[in-house]
Amino acid sequence: MTEPSDPGRAPDPEAIRPQRPAGPTHRALAERAQRRRSAVIAGVSTVVVFGALAAIVVRAPGWGQVRRAFFSWDDFRASLGDIAPAFMLNVRIFLIAEVLILVVALAVAVARSSRSPVLFPVRVLATVYVDLLRGIPIILLIFLLGFGVPALRLDGVTNEPVVWATVALVLSYSAYVSEVFRAGIDSVHESQRAAARSLGLTEGKALRFVVLPQAVRRVIPPLLNDFIALQKETALVGLLGPIEAARQAQIYSSKTFNFTSYLAAAVIFVALTVPLTRFTDWLVSRRRDRVSAGRLA
Amino acid sequence: MSKLVLERVWKSFGDRDVLAQVDLAVAEHEVVALIGASGSGKSTLLRCVNLLEPVDDGRVLLDGVDISEPGRDVDAVRRRIGIVFQAFNLFPHLDVLGNVTLGPRRVLGFARRDAEARATELLARFGLADKASDYPDRLSGGQQQRVAIVRALAMDPELLLLDEITSALDPELVGEVLDVVRELKAGGMTMLIATHEMAFARSIADRVCFLDDGRICEEGPPAQVLDAPRHPRTQQFLQRVLRREDDTRP
Question: Is B39 left (phi over 0), alpha (psi -120 to 50) or beta?
């Protein structure tokens, strides 16, 4: 029992602020114990799950054959030597397509977001384009352009299959990416546009200096996500004949009757996509931290 | 001649008449405060003046020229009229200097260096010199609103519209923003101010207009409208508001 405090007494201004005792707090200790427990559980459950999966695969009746056909170290090394140079074609296609997609998609998104009556036909065209191109499977588009355009035998137009396959990728992905951009544009609050217009900026300048910079920043994570997908889709170019990584793997396997080359190609693709995926996740989580800290407008 | 004249202005959203035949004149160097309940049309009136909302009927005259005529170059009009919003509406992707120089550079065609020199001067005048390279999300509400005022001033406006500029602020930050407005009045700025701060309206306005349901119910010098309102609606409104101000007074 303590003495009841005198209700009429004013707080003493000279009273010393209570000092926090040294050492970890009660809560810090509890959290540390909790973390240790979680780590142990995660470790045990990982071993159990992956152990069980490995046991199922290794004990399957066909495992011996599969191991020889898909996991041959010699074939892996031999095919990697062929596939790695071929993969440079995938990288080239990817890099060129990426830049073109950004340009086309942004143009389409801006056209669809415009309100000017003069641009009405452009708006219709952009809408039709997005609807159509999102509906056509890329593989069909690659065949249509890759076989169709050269068949026209137009003067001065290249018949190079790589070019037309890349065009097909650009057309298809631009339709998707333009929707990403458009979502970003729509996510910028109307009051930002009002603030820009009230300074006397024209519709176009408000878009360029105020709306788009904010919109693009917001859609970088989903944009990178689409580019990760694009990296893999470059393998479809091989369907027209150009020898990129997946096609090279196929050639190797048809010569040796061993499928390890496909695994080698997959490893190369993954080696490029994983860093980009991690980078995207990092961007997303950083952004989430900023939003939850209430610092992002 | 009046700087700004609203002549029988009508504005409706759907079938709701937000402004019903509003007549209002603001003389050069005059400060007019619009008071009235939420939804009485104060903000809409301001937005109609700088053409963020087109008026349905009637005319808005700036220096005697009809600016509300359909087909008029709205950007040329807005260049001459500054507006400050309740929610600041600063550009979050630009730092303070970027916010203040955007208009001068992209609308008035100032070179970057000239625009920044002028902006720095203005920021210093309002105690924001050390914030020039900060982003808006690093500033307090009061600082953000002062930056928003400076952004409007950087366009050298002939008329400044203030739309409830202290309503989104914590009480202890209201003062610093109102001080800026007082300084602007001392400098002769023509202002049309929508406000909930009766004490502020009393101290700064040359004239107070009470808006009720889209109509100007009563207008006159602050002492008359705020202390001896004649219209029953004004009396009712002031009773409600002033009682609330008493309640919050410690």
Answer: left
